[in-house]
Amino acid sequence: MSIKIKFTLIIFSLVSFSIVVILFVSFLIQKNLLQKQFNENLQKTFKGLCYTCEGAARVKDETLIYNTLKSFIDTYNPQIIFAGYISADKDEPIIVVRDVGKEYEFKGRMFLQKESSVEKIVSSGGEEVLEYSEGLKSDDGEYLGSVKVGYSKSYLDNHMKSVMFLIIKNILFVGIVMIVISLGLTFFLTLYLIKPVRILTKAAKEVTKGNLNIKVGMRRKDEIGILSKTFDDMIQKVKQLDELKDSFVSSVSHELRSPLSAISGYVDLLMENINSGSINLEKAKKALSIIKDSVERLTTFINNILDLTKIKAGKLELRRSENKIENVILEVLSLFEPLALQQQKDLKVEIEPSLPSVYIDVERIKQVLINLVGNALKFTEPNGKIKIVARLVKENLLSKGYKIPVSNARDNFVEILVVDTGCGIPSDELDKIFDKFYQVGGTTPKKPKGTGLGLSIAAEIVKIHNGQIGVESVVGQGSTFKFVVPVYHPNKFGVFVR
Ligand code: ADP
């Protein structure tokens, strides 16, 4: 059963049930009101009769009493079976009957009754009769006589039934109209709710077929609108990942192909020289050094891929201990100094005196720093400046460059910054450069090739140190990459508690 039919059935059943309950309750209320009104009317007409008879009895005008009773019974025929009057001092009652010949039967019912009462009796013909009696008084409160009227119960019931039938007919009509309207409304409401689901399903089917050039683009401000926007964002992300994957595959192939072809070329050359017996030691040394470099490049690349896989699987274990950050920085400096000199770039360090020890895995933090300084050198033109700074965090890290504010960071973190005067990064790409395989496109025309893995690995390493990495950059002026690592607290086993 389709969701449209399910929805229609559920909503329709609920609405119909509510309509039936409401109409049933309103029927009960109307029935009670009607019953009450009916009894009141009966009482009123009877009291009216009594009032006229009382006036006549006071002046002892029996003709008037007879005429009143007669006109009463004529007016309400066939509802009234008999109407009678008996005076307090005369035995013979005045009686008017609906059916000729019944005078004697009902004459027997006429006796003086001082209090008002309603009594049910059965006539000789088997008809149920409701007897209303009332005592009549003079001005002094002396009893003058009493009036008695017999109503046909079956007539009253039938009358009541016919009125009830009319009410039920009206209620049924209203109910059917309401149910038909609610069915229509339910159908359109369901269509309104289901339509976006259909559109989304169609779009999702397109995506499973591999078509990523699709946009739902629903302009609604409700949850469905949010879902549609999330869906569009998701497709955008998948598209981006797809593009990243393609560029990664081409980068990986390039990264593997260049050192492999260098190795293969120089090995061939060496073998040729050995075979011809004319080996030149200088040239052989140069070839071997290029082969060694290429092997190192391949190893680093493969290690990067392995690191990333480990981090993704949560299997990267840190060997943390108390360490001085300046040792790590100086080691990285000595590693890059020859290259900076060769490329005519000014590389220097600025370490705040008496920095506290940090709680880090030295090799992993070195890896982060190597990546940042390596990038700074890679993206800075000759004569540019690169500075590595280390300082104790003096304020909460709510400053620009970090993604999440680190509260209470003061005195608990050491911050390391790598500042360069290189090409810089466009502001709209700052968020993405820590994504795996992401590389900024088109900032500099002859940008050195990489794999876009370094920063994502660096960010993960800093993250598992309970630290945070960030960047600030201005295109054409340079970039500042920075990260924080926790200060060593012996009592807390070095684990910083936020
Ligand atoms: P790779 O350098 O191998 O491409 P990274 O993850 O280290 O990968 O860097 C991702 C991208 O960030 C680089 O391709 C580059 O576009 C940009 N980037 C990183 N560091 C800098 C920097 N110091 N100056 C300018 N751009 C940088």
Question: How would you explain this protein's 3D organization?
Answer:
- The protein has about 500 residues and is α+β, with helices and mostly antiparallel strands.
- The protein contains nine helices and twelve strands.
- The protein has helices at about 5-60, 60-75, 105, 155-210, 225-275, 280-310, 325-340, 360-380, 455-465, and strands spanning about 80-85, 95, 115-120, 130-135, 145-150, 320-325, 345-350, 360, 385-390, 415-420, 470-475, 480-485.
- A five-stranded antiparallel beta sheet has the order 2-1-5-4-3.
- β1 (about 80-85) and β2 (about 95) form a beta hairpin.
- The two termini are about 55 Å apart.
- Residues about 495-498 have low confidence and may be disordered.
- It binds adenosine-5'-diphosphate (ADP).
SSE layout and pairing:
Elements lengths: L2 H56 L3 H14 L4 E8 L6 E4 L5 H5 L9 E6 L5 E10 L5 E10 H56 L14 H54 L4 H32 L8 E3 L1 H18 L3 E6 L6 E3 L1 H17 L6 E8 L20 E8 L33 H11 L3 E7 L3 E9 L12
Helix pairs in contact: 1-2, 1-4, 4-5, 5-6, 6-9, 7-8, 8-9
The structure holds adenosine-5'-diphosphate.
Adenosine-5'-diphosphate binds next to α8 and α9.
**String of helices and strands:** HHEEHEEEHHHEHEEHEEHEE
What structural class do the secondary elements suggest? alpha+beta
Shape: rod-shaped
Spatial separation of the terminal alpha carbons: 53 Å
Q: What ions, cofactors and ligands are bound?
A: adenosine-5'-diphosphate
Q: Would you count the extended β strands for me?
A: 12
The gist of it:
The protein has 498 residues and is an alpha+beta fold.
